[in-house]
């Protein structure tokens, strides 16, 4: 009904939008058209269709000989397809230049940010947390970024900052993908509530409280204006002592009340002007109607505008601006802002807000646009407002153009369409709004990266040079790449050679230099890159493709398996699938393509020429068809052998057979989380929520979304609401899981046990019950009920939950049965090949030499695991090899700045008497987690010792 309120306003003044000559819109399809090997287009689509139709025709031929030769025909089809697209070439591979801030010394940068945060004035903390966000954006754990974003919102003071950060938090959860959720819906949390964002003031405690707003969507908010201006007059008409004449209308007023509206009115009515002595004042040429002046008279008495039509309030806003009526402007601004609830209303009112300098009204309109991202940027007027310099200037005049705003807009645009003109212009506006050094570094570096992707190499080099001048040394990599793309390979090599000489060498430096050399020198650089940073994927990919070019496909697959063993990515899965197709291992190739499409449903295979789903269709003709029951059996087998990639592929197949199955989407999300693919996991979880067929099931998935984005109490509330509707395994499991993470005391542990027992009484399949039994056993261990834990772990193993071996080994260890513990972990290793965590855990139960061997294997399989580095460093310290111990930790910290690693190195420095280094590492660790008790304790002790050593 509110939409009808604005019908009269449209005749008053239609919004023309921000002026401009050209509109740049984002790609509406949102589909990815490139892959890790570059290239694009759909050149191979018709060719593939011909191949498929030929294959189908061969299958429909009922001649016995044709049936016999089906495998040969399909193999020939795949061979022809592979020949058409061509195997990957080493010269098509390039390492990705990171889009984020990348300090040369990450630990020192973290320590500096922490110190400045501690010394920052309270009202400046939100800005500091934003800088922290930019630094954490490059880390693999997205929770660190979201945590900083939430902290920035908690510390926000002004409305503009609250509006942008609230919308950004919502964008991180992608609530726009949830069916039935409107952009302006209140989610129940003050931190993201659209109403709370429009309230200025500093109150970080209230931001974590449940939201108290109650937005009435169906309530009329005005009455007839004739009634509104006369209903409260009564006997007060006799007090009117003057009139404003507008045309033939005469509006009776109290002189004192009107004069109190502003200083100009006071001068007009009580100053030395002729009007101050007149009873009737001609007011026809001031741009306000008789109805508007009646409303102004009523406001002078009531100080309210909520009984007027919105078009009348807009007149009052204009009058307030002309005559400096601050109170009336504020009330009108607040009221109009409360009416903004959708895109149509926001588009209609924005121009009024900009022209009348109505800060709150513009904020409310911006809030709608930001909470509708990325779709709102497809509106030409919205795109023009944000992208053009004039639009930015108009926003700045009202107080709504900031680096924060354009930082958010540009990140959303890059996710939607990296190469679009919209992305470029938003980054340009972001650079124009940048005032601090880190802001300029980020804006210019990202502009360079986008220009490089657009193949505008001269402009890319210009922006990278600007970023370096602003202090972002890493952008030298972009300069080298731009020079290389422009044909100056030797200049690029010299630049990276000088880079390595001038700074502490890192793996990515050698990786980049390898781009500009050949032969043995190139391979040496790649080897050094892997040695310094074993997590870089480009060296593995290059070595694998190089071996494939030599027709050594077995070693090529072994090489790519090294990186896939600890980091799953679409480009590496595509490479392995490519090799497997060449070897005619179609089942393995199909597994990898299905897993790949789980990570990225729109992935384009074969140099960006072929949709992944089409390749699945082609490969499926060459493998044994599976029913849904067969798939369940396969899933149990994959789960039992801890084969997460295989499990992903099976779930993808099951979803192809039953696409509306929310439970399968949920399982898919759990697998993706185990593989640290957080973005894909959240997408699967949102799809599970959308496909849920019952309210209680939907609430569970919403609870997991909330938990994974940092809202634990709200997640528990969703679980409880689900249980109140219907008792289910997943609802009890969710509540138990979140509680065990939130309140790890003995009393809550007993409650968690009750919840998990309730979960196990509810229907579910063996995969989930095995997980619940394992979790229940873990809680039993925490409360020292070891025999109960053994029973649970044994029951979990009986239903093929192989990971229960690890928990059972822990119990045996606590019962001082180390041999049994070691043997239990050996069973896990035998069942789950190449499981780095199993080797790491078994190291705790063997002697020193056996432990060293297991930890060496764990590091080889997964260099991201930190325990092996900490153990080796501790052993070296015990042997009084302090420098080697520090070097061991430093090597790991260089590519994984982990809290535990930093804490341990700080402790080592402290024991060696190097207090300055110890303080730095403590500060860096606290930047990652300011509440880490052990590090806080160490930090205070080291600081005290440093003070004691100062000369008196």
Automatic annotation (TrEMBL):
Keywords on record: TPR repeat
InterPro entries named among the record's database cross-references: ETO1-like, SKP1/BTB/POZ_sf, TPR-like_helical_dom_sf, TPR_rpt
Metabolic or biological pathway, per its Swiss-Prot or TrEMBL entry: Protein modification; protein ubiquitination
Pfam families found in the cross-reference section: TPR_8
Keyword Transcription regulation: no
Keyword Transcription in annotation: no
TPR repeats by residue range: 770-803
PROSITE patterns linked to this entry: TPR
Domain of life according to the entry: Eukaryota
Protein name: Ethylene-overproduction protein 1
Organism of derivation: Datura stramonium
